[in-house]
Amino acid sequence: KQRPTVCVYDHAVSLVLDVLLGVAVFLFLSEGNYTKELANNLIPFADSVAAELQDLLHWLMGAPAGLKLNRPLDEFLGRFFLYHIQLWIGYLYILRPYLEMITWCIGLSGCLGMSVLLALA
């Protein structure tokens, strides 16, 4: 008979701790009703991030720090990324009524383990 090695015990303990931490985070989020608070704060935070990114892109589309860049490529890439920032914000506004449910479902995935929760977050 072969006895289980330390590696098997290590994996088992890692799995148990992963699931316990995930369940603890889910209970923390659901008990304090933090999912609603997260959902309500997501849109203003995303708006501020988008505004900062747009300012940065407009600065980069000019002559950042006195560098002369390839102007047509600079304009194309700047418009491309500005469009995608606007698209991202648009999708968030479309999802606004469902954000609380989405954050709750992401929190519920903590029952599958902390690693799954972090991968989705």
Write the layout of secondary structure elements.
Layout: H1 6-31, H2 34-61, H3 71-95, H4 99-108, H5 114-120
How does this structure look, described?
The structure is a single chain. The protein has 121 residues and is an all-alpha fold. The protein is 79% helix and 0% strand. The chain is built from 5 helices and no strands. Helix 1 (6-31) packs across helix 5, helix 2 (34-61) runs antiparallel to helix 3 (71-95) and helix 2 crosses helix 4. It is elongated and about 70 Å long. The protein starts with 5 loop residues before the first helix and ends with a helix.
Shape: elongated
Helix and strand succession?
A: HHHHH
Q: Helix proportion of residues, in percent?
A: over 70%
Total E-strand runs: 0
Structural class: mainly alpha
Concise structural overview:
With 121 residues, the chain is mainly alpha-helical. It contains 5 helices and no strands.
Highlighted features:
mainly alpha, 5 helices, 0% strand, 121 residues, elongated
